[in-house]
Every structure is written in structure tokens, then in C-alpha cells.
Amino acid sequence: MKTVLITGCSSGYGLETARRFHAGGWNVVATMRTPRPDVLPLSDRIRVLALDVTRPESIAAAVEASGPIDVLVNNAGIGLFGAWEATPMATVREVFDTNTFGTMAMTQALLPQFRARRSGTIVNVTSTVALAAMPLVAAYTASKTAVEGFTASLALELASFDIRVKLVEPGYGPDTRFTQNGTARMEGLIPEAYASFAQSAFAGLAESPAVTRASDVADAVWRAAHDGTRRLRHPAGADALAIAQGQPSAASSLALGGA
User: Fold this and answer.
1) pLDDT at 238
2) 116 to each of 50, 65, 102, 164, 170, how far by Cα in Å?
3) CB-based burial of residue 145 (10 Å sphere; 0-12 exposed, 13-18 middle, 19+ buried)?
4) CATH class of the domain defined by 3-190+212-240
């Protein structure tokens, strides 16, 4: 029976992905900063571990406690909406620490066992903001775009060891706690000069006809983990599929005041 380690499982995409793999018969190591076993089914195939991907000692402890892992899903992330002009660099670094460097650190921690066994899959969850520009998410977009480049290069680097590396690219998902979890971080990031534009942008997102559900992402991660080809990108959600097929992003268009 295979084992998956998933980061950021307390809510949203990570939680739904943990449930999806458990339902599929896998052993699941569900990690989160503050363990909440109550959010997952009671099962001897689920372990909930504390993990802060920004702390090397926390990563080392979680990897040691997990034992052999077949698939790593780097899902932990924090969101950020705000005008770039008003965003402190300390906040930008906080976003990169989790979204970018956390993904890199977890990957580096698991690679020795994958390479030794000449097997394993790494699935990095990014966002379609890396493919279709949206306003007021410059820092977040930069953090996810960095992971996209990292993943594409790593896929080539690790192919000779029979290690597969995948990207899952969700579209806009209002049914997650992305915004709620970042409320304090985003306070004051929409100054008066940007208020009218931001209001229009948020209204555009709310009106977008194509959105991504947590279950869409979980299904895409499941498919990516089982994909034995060299396919890199796996879009998740109706809007993500549209972008992957070269169609304009509804959310981007509406946010920018387009038709």
C-alpha cells in the first residue's frame, strides 16, 4: 500500500486531497502547522503530524516520523491580495518562505529516499495566476511562478532517477480558506488610491462563471500522482482548464474590467 505525505491539510485543497487519497486506499500522512485530527476520518491509514514548512527542524522531524513516502504533495501555501505599492517586503518574504522556499525545502528533504529507491513522485500545487495575469496578487503570483520554474527544471533533473515531478495548477477557488487565512496579513494593503480599482477587481472575481472547487484540485493531484508519463502540468478546475486550452481567464478579464 502506497503512502502520500501532504502539506497544508488543515483546510481547503490539502484537506480535500488527504480525504481523496484515503478514499482511494492509500496511507495518508496529513501535515499541518497545528494538528487537527478531527478534520479527517478516524482511520489507521491516516496520521496527522505537525509541520511548519518554514522551519528546518520541523521538516526534519516530520520526515523522520513519516517513514517511507511514495508521493509528496507540496500544497501548503498562504495567500495575499493587495496593492504592490503598499505591501511591506517583510510580508513578501513571508509569502515566499511558505509558498516557494517551503516547497523547495520539503522536496529536498524527501529526495534522498526517492533517489535511493529510484522511485517517487513530487506534486507541487501552484496556481493559474502563474499562467494568466491577475491584478493585486503580484507577490503571490511571483511566489507561485518561482515554483513553476523550479518544478519544470527539477522534472528534467530527476527523470534519470525515475522520479516524476508534476504541477497541479488550480484556478480561482472561493470555497477555500485562502482569503480568510490571510486577513491579518492583508490588512492595510489596499490604500485609498487603489480602493475603487480593488472593489471592481473583487466584484469581477465574485462574478466569474468558472471557479475551482477543492474537490477539483484533489482529483487533479490524484491524477498527477498516478500519471506515469512525463506530462508536467495538470490544471484543476473549469477556469484552469480554459486557460490551459488558451482561452482568456474569466476571472482576469472581469477583474480588469473586460467583457
Assistant:
1) 84
2) 26, 18, 23, 14, 31
3) middle
4) alpha beta
Q: pLDDT by residue (tens digit) across 68-105? A: 999 999 999 999 999 999 999 999 999 999 999 999 99
Q: How far apart are CA 150 and CA 36, in angstroms?
A: 31
Instruction: Give the pLDDT score at 256.
Output: 41
Strands 71-74 and 233-236 turn out to be unpaired
| Residue that wins the pLDDT comparison between 201 and 157 | 157
C-alpha distances in Å from residue 93, one per residue of 78, 139, 184? 12, 9, 16
**Structure-block grid coordinates of residue 115:** 533517489
Q: Measured between alpha carbons, how far is residue 80 from residues 15, 21, 146, 229, 252 in Å?
A: 20, 28, 16, 34, 16
Distance CA 209, CA 145 (A): 25
Strands in 121-125's sheet, in edge-to-edge order, are: 46-50, 27-32, 3-6, 71-74, 121-125, 164-170, 233-236
* 233 three-state secondary structure: strand
Residue in the structure block whose three cell numbers are 501555501: 77
* CB-based burial, 95-126: b 16+ in 10 Å, e otherwise: bbbbbbbbbbbbbebbbebbeeeeebbbbbbb
Which helix (H) or strand (E) is 240 found in, with range? helix 238-244
Catalytic one of 13, 140, 172, 194: 140
Grid coordinates given for 9 = 491539510
C-alpha span between 133 and 25 (Å, rounded): 38
SS3 assignment, position 95:
helix
Containing H/E element for 170?
Answer: strand 164-170
140 labelled catalytic: yes
Query: Cell 490551459 appears where?
Result: 244
The pLDDT value given to residue 258: 36
Show the cell assigned to 77.
501555501
